[in-house]
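In response to the reviewer comment on reproducibility (Comment 2.3), we provide here a single inverse folding case reported in full, input and output, so that an independent group could reproduce the run without further information from us. The structure tokens appear first.
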């Protein structure tokens, strides 16, 4: 009964944290789908400062503005987007709204998850989380940014070069575009977390650095499989654009893990040498 009570207590704490997260994320999502940002340039000390203010608009809202910016940024100018399904435009706004909500609310999500996990962690685990927290966030932002601003636009340009070579009309369904763009960009964010994952497991003593180096062939195969799964098209181009950076990041993580092990060995050997 005592063990069952502990399980109920943990489930109750999870529920409380999820409710606290929802209380923050729900208003953010509601704002994104019911307001637009109207530009209002301001003159400050003779300089024009970009500014925008919210204005109610159920149709041309922030998600619609983000969608238009995404189209302009990532698609070649001659590509025509089609609303194939009746509710495609609504689903696109919901998908973009959910993604933006998670991005904006990520600090609060991390805070609540950390508040739930930290009491159960050992001292060395809490210290490790403090050390990798900023690098993990920065790498995710860097990977996602590269995906949005460079890799995904490059991928679309390459794919539509094949379309032009075949003499086909450059047409794309709006749902296909959004799902590809969002999934592909987020995949790069996740891929850039790989060095942190490798380093963390070695620092916790779960996997030795030599093991990462030994199984590099398996990492190559796993990277190719991951690239095949997360890319919604069946071309090898998009798979390789994900897999090749992933392999490089795996090797970088293995190098940092080995470097930390060497430093740990030196620290442990120092007192021994002095004592001798």
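Designed residues, in position order:
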């Amino acid at each position: 009964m005592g063990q069952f009570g502990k399980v109920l207590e943990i489930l109750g704490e999870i529920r409380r944290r999820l409710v606290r997260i929802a209380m923050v994320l729900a208003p953010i999502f509601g704002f994104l789908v019911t307001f637009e940002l109207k530009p209002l340039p301001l003159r400050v000390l003779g300089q024009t400062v970009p500014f925008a203010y919210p204005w109610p608009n159920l149709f041309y809202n922030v998600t619609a503005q983000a969608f238009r910016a995404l189209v302009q940024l990532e698609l070649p100018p001659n590509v025509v987007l089609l609303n194939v399904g009746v509710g495609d435009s609504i689903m696109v706004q919901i998908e973009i709204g959910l993604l933006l909500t998670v991005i904006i609310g990520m600090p609060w999500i991390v805070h609540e998850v950390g508040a739930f996990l930290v009491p159960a962690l050992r001292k060395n685990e809490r210290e490790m989380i403090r050390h990798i927290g900023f690098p993990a966030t920065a790498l995710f932002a860097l990977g996602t940014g590269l995906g949005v601003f460079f890799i995904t636009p490059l991928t679309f340009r390459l794919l539509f070069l094949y379309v032009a070579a075949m003499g086909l009309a450059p047409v794309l369904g709006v749902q296909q575009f959004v799902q590809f763009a969002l999934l592909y960009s987020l995949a790069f964010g996740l891929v850039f977390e790989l060095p942190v994952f490798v380093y963390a497991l070695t620092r916790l003593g779960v996997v030795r650095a030599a093991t990462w180096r030994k199984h590099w062939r398996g990492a190559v195969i796993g990277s190719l499989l991951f690239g095949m799964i997360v890319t919604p098209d069946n071309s090898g181009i998009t798979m390789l654009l994900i897999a090749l950076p992933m392999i490089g990041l795996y090797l970088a993580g293995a190098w940092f893990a080995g470097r930390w092990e060497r430093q740990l060995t030196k620290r442990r050997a120092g007192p021994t040498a002095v004592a001798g």
